[in-house]
Amino acid sequence: MATQALFREDAYLRECDAVVTRVGDDGVELDRTVFYPLGGGQASDTGFITTASGMRLRVIDTRKVKREGATPDDALHVIDPVDAWQAELAVGTPVRAQIDWDRRYRHMRFHTATHLLCAVVKQMVDGCSITHDYARLDFAMTELLDKQLVQDELDALIASATPVGCEWISDDEMRANPQLVKSMSVSPPIGFGRVRLLRVQDVDLQPCGGTHVANTAEIGAMRVAKIEKKSAKTRRVVLEFA
């Protein structure tokens, strides 16, 4: 059974009721989840799974399921090994899944900021990392970047209070519009019927499965921490909260 990834439609959802569909030495799978698994450069969610008896099991990582036949939404919830979780969970067990909201919301703000950065720099992305503490994009380019100019343009886009939303297109539509892809390091998940696009109204549109805020103003004060030459053909831009 494929996992229903609730965060795809509502990144603000912090918890949900679910049923255990698989238990293994590597973790737990649920029929639905609010946990975002590591992928697309974005760090995973952590949090808790609570049983009907009230036992709280700490989710220390969330990963995409790798086995044959898995979909992009199937998620493995890795439980803290110190918890006696295998004795508490079995297939069919009802649970409550709850993410660490502070961590998730920082990811959402950073991830949306990287989409604005794509609009500022306008070169193909050749590497991405979104964490609790910083976000970075590596751009395939040899030109020098003016740090203050990047900062000023990023600030203006954040302050513009532009709506951010998601829409879906078919695999065929994605193949027919390769210009939508702005990353050399992450390919859109074609082969499952549809692809999600992230649209920052009149600013940026590209395939993305991550979590984002609903308006650029929510990003808040963001600082271009550094711009460095990562290689002869790559420039790295690192963002931090100001």
Written account of the structure:
The chain has four helices and 15 strands. It has 242 residues and is of the alpha+beta class. The strands form four sheets. A six-stranded antiparallel β-sheet has the order 3-2-8-5-6-7. A four-stranded antiparallel β-sheet has the order 9-10-15-14, covered by helices on one side. The mean pLDDT is 94. The longest helix is centred in the middle third of the chain and has 21 residues, at 101-121.
Q: How would you describe this structure in keywords?
A:
single chain, 242 residues, alpha+beta, Elongation Factor Tu (Ef-tu), domain 3, Threonyl-tRNA Synthetase, Chain A, domain 2, 6-stranded antiparallel beta sheet, 4-stranded antiparallel beta sheet, 4 helices, 15 strands, 38% strand
Rg: 19 Å
Rounded mean pLDDT score: 94
Distance between the termini: 43 Å
The unreliable regions are: none
State the strand order across the main sheet: 3-2-8-5-6-7
Question: By CATH's scheme, which homologous superfamily of the largest domain applies?
Answer: Threonyl-trna Synthetase, Chain A, domain 2
Task: Report the sheet-strand fraction.
Answer: 35-45%
Q: Report the order of strands and helices.
A: EEEEEEEHEHEEHEHEEEE
Described by strand count, sense and barrel closure, the largest sheet is: 6 strands, antiparallel
Number of strands: 15
Shape: globular
Task: Give the fraction of residues assigned to helices.
Answer: 10-25%
